[in-house]
């Protein structure tokens, strides 16, 4: 049998390649450069790990985060693949041991941070080694248009050019916008790479946006319903992380926190607590997560709207990497838009950019924010909205998002529509030209805004007729009028222009209906006695699982093994693999090897003990 299939089955335990993996593996084995654009959880690591095992010498993997390296190396070691990492978190002694192993040709994969590439000691050692392949993970970090620009990524080509023989280069990213893709290819110096861009859809993720009155009261029932899972709650500021994490602890959740303001030590500890399932809820800013390889994240809840759909999809995509159903829920409030604007305006300047480039970046950030707020406002399919943005074809309705499966009511908004549309016309009559949404909003809400007063719009009869409506509500009216075709936006000046349908509403009594989601969550106020109910360890299993004794028993067995070996649960077996064991109930070694996710090393190590547990239930 072809060696690659052999490794795929025996080492990784998979019966087939996933979409996009095989062409990339083949190209790397043939010595070509590759560029893989796949969503988070798409299976990028296998694309370079498998060739690394078949190529002579050691493959270098450039990866942006130290935490990721340790986990990947641990997972590879558990599969029986010789791998190591060198980074600043190691003691001198540990690093020396890795260098010795490297020179002795002990490893097939070496993980390093990009900063390492410029250190003389490292480049010296590496020049004496055979390096068939350099894989660059999170390759979008090389682009200043990307979300996570890392200037040290720009040093990669220089490092490559100083090697005695040019290795194959493999770049991987989940960020799909054409500009970033173009940057990666050009700046890394990929030579006619074999490109694979796989579908961005993640069918196991269920998307939803909720607009609760009080966010915390909505968060609690969402988390209570998911006590048996672990997940991430993203907040946009450090202060919010502190507040939400503390409140959740008082409400009895094993919550931990992560943001850039914490000491390194605490950050590392909290991250490990989450990865090792000692804490089941991670409350974090977006500083947490890039490269966190935890496959059993059951939900990602955004407490605030992120700055862009790219960031949202990347963060939300950390759920359900093992293919199990998972939830991505965004708790939206109009104030989120203000916070996001503030973050764009006060965001740190990038010293590597000229003032013009900086201005361009800010403009792009605003465009991205608009796309993101559009996601929160849409009453169409959430998945379709995301896939549209990434330029991928899709069906109209996915039946696995809050809007597709949601319960809608039609609300009559004829009166509000008349108010908005007549304000648009009256402003036009007064000024002789159309204006943008924000000026109309200010006028409708009776604002003392400088422009409104300077233009004399406070003298119009429609001034202040929507005084009581909050910004979110008025935004919904505009969205409904735009999607319903009553208003259109002039592309160049972003002004709002009424259409023929608008005149029908104003002068011929046409009714305007708007689709609105029925209240999707019951908000429950904080429990009054929560101080007393404080409990650090949550119940490990949901009632549903308790009924399923076998899955429960296997999870417990996995927990004991993971504790004994000091590794995260998923390094032993992922949830998806345990569920397959429950389904297939293997009794022989051959059956056990046929379970997806079981390779020879793990079968040898854990086969008997798992089968003996399964035996008790058959
Ligand atoms: P990415 O780096 O693209 O986010 P990973 O490489 O971490 O994704 O893979 C995500 C999950 O998919 C992992 O749990 C991995 O074990 C699993 N996986 C990878 N390749 C396959 C395959 N061919 N068949 C089944 N599962 C796979």
Description:
It is a single chain. The protein is an alpha/beta fold. The protein folds into 4 domains: 3-197, Rossmann fold; 205-403, Rossmann fold, CATH 3.40.50.300; 409-520, Orthogonal Bundle (Arc Repressor Mutant, subunit A); 543-615, Orthogonal Bundle (DNA polymerase, domain 1). The strands form 4 sheets. A 7-stranded parallel beta sheet has the order 3-4-2-5-6-1-7, with helices on both faces. The chain has a 6-stranded parallel beta sheet with strand order 8-13-12-9-11-10, sandwiched between helices. Strands 14-17 form a two-stranded antiparallel ribbon. The radius of gyration is 27 Å and the shape is globular. The two termini are 34 Å apart. It binds adenosine-5'-diphosphate. The site of adenosine-5'-diphosphate (ADP) has 17 residues, from helix 3.
């Amino acid at each position: 049998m072809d060696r690659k299939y052999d490794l795929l089955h025996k080492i990784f335990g998979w019966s087939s390649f996933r979409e996009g993996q095989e062409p990339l593996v083949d190209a790397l084995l043939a010595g070509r450069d590759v560029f893989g654009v796949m969503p988070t959880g798409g299976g990028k690591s296998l694309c370079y790990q498998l060739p690394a095992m078949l190529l002579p010498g050691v493959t270098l993997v450039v990866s942006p985060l130290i935490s990721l390296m340790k986990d990947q190396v641990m997972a590879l070691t558990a599969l029986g693949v010789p791998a190591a990492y060198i980074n600043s978190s190691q003691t001198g002694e540990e690093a020396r041991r890795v260098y010795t192993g490297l020179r002795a040709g002990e490893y097939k994969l070496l993980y390093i941070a990009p900063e390492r590439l410029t250190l003389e000691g490292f480049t010296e050692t590496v020049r004496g080694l055979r390096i068939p392949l350099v894989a660059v993970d999170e390759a979008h970090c090389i682009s200043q248009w990307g979300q996570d620009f890392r200037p040290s990524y720009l040093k990669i080509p220089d490092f490559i050019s100083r090697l005695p023989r040019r290795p194959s280069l493999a770049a991987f990213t989940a960020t799909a916008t054409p500009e970033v893709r173009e940057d990666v290819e050009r700046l890394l110096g990929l030579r006619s790479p074999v490109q694979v861009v796989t579908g961005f859809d993640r069918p196991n993720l269920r998307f939803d946006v909720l607009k609760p009155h009080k966010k915390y009261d909505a968060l609690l029932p969402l988390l209570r319903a998911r006590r048996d899972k672990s997940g991430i709650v993203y907040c946009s500021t450090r202060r919010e992380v502190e507040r939400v994490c503390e409140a959740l602890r008082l409400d009895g959740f094993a919550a931990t926190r992560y943001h850039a303001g914490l000491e390194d030590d605490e950050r590392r500890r909290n991250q490990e607590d989450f990865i090792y399932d000692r804490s089941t809820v991670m409350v974090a800013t977006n500083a947490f997560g890039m490269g966190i390889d935890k496959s059993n994240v059951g939900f990602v809840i955004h407490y605030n709207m992120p700055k862009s759909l790219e960031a949202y999809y990347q963060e939300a995509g950390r759920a359900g990497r093992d293919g199990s159903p998972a939830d991505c829920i965004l708790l939206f409030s109009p104030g989120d838009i203000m916070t996001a604007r503030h973050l764009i305006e006060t965001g740190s300047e990038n010293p590597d950019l000229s003032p013009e480039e900086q201005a361009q970046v800010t403009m792009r950030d605003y465009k991205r924010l608009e796309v993101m707020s559009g996601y929160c406002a849409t009453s169409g399919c959430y998945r379709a909205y995301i896939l549209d943005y990434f330029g991928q074809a899709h069906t109209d309705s996915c039946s696995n998002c809050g809007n597709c499966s949601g319960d809608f009511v039609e609300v009559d908004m004829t009166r509000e529509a008349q108010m908005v549309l007549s304000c648009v016309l009256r402003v036009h009559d007064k000024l002789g030209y159309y204006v943008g949404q924000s000026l109309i909003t200010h006028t409708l809400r009776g604002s003392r805004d400088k422009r409104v007063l300077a233009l004399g719009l406070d003298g119009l009869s429609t001034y202040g007729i929507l005084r009581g409506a909050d910004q979110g509500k008025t935004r919904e009216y505009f969205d409904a009028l735009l999607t319903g075709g009553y208003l259109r936006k002039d592309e160049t000046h972003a002004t709002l222009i009424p259409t023929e349908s608008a005149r029908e509403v104003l002068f011929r009594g046409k009714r305007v209906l708007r689709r609105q989601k029925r209240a999707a969550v019951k908000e429950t106020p904080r429990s009054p006695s929560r101080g007393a109910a404080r409990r650090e360890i949550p119940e490990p299993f949901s009632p549903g699982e308790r009924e399923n004794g076998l899955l429960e028993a296997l999870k417990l067995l996995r927990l004991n093994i993971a504790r004994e070996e000091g590794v995260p649960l998923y390094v032993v077996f992922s949830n998806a693999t345990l569920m397959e064991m429950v389904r297939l109930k293997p009794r022989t070694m051959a059956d056990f090897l046929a379970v997806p996710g079981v390779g020879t090393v793990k079968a040898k190590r854990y086969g008997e003990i798992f089968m003996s547990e399964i035996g008790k239930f058959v």
